[in-house]
């Protein structure tokens, strides 16, 4: 059986998925870890962080599903979502002047773009 998704993409996407899922679970269970000065009793603050965590969890679950099923189109969509979310995070990091968020998001953007390109190239070679 020919692997449609390159092995290195599977490994990197699996690690990315684990970090995304860990982040989302930690954001729901211990939101003070990420926002120590935030009052989670204020109106809509807890709702916002939970929705953010669920968005991240959904993207992580989509990547995991596409890796298990070896679905190229689904993985491209999931990695495109990672890319898009991190573009918005770069803008947000610039707005709040958080260099760590900017650098982290640039790395995620580059990694997801390289994986999308590699998947596309491999699928083109296999004529899928």
From TrEMBL:
<protein>
    <recommendedName>
        <fullName>DUF4345 domain-containing protein</fullName>
    </recommendedName>
</protein>
<keyword id="KW-0812">Transmembrane</keyword>
<feature type="transmembrane region" description="Helical">
    <location>
        <begin position="7"/>
        <end position="30"/>
    </location>
</feature>
<keyword id="KW-0472">Membrane</keyword>
<feature type="transmembrane region" description="Helical">
    <location>
        <begin position="50"/>
        <end position="68"/>
    </location>
</feature>
<feature type="transmembrane region" description="Helical">
    <location>
        <begin position="75"/>
        <end position="96"/>
    </location>
</feature>
<feature type="transmembrane region" description="Helical">
    <location>
        <begin position="102"/>
        <end position="119"/>
    </location>
</feature>
<keyword id="KW-1133">Transmembrane helix</keyword>
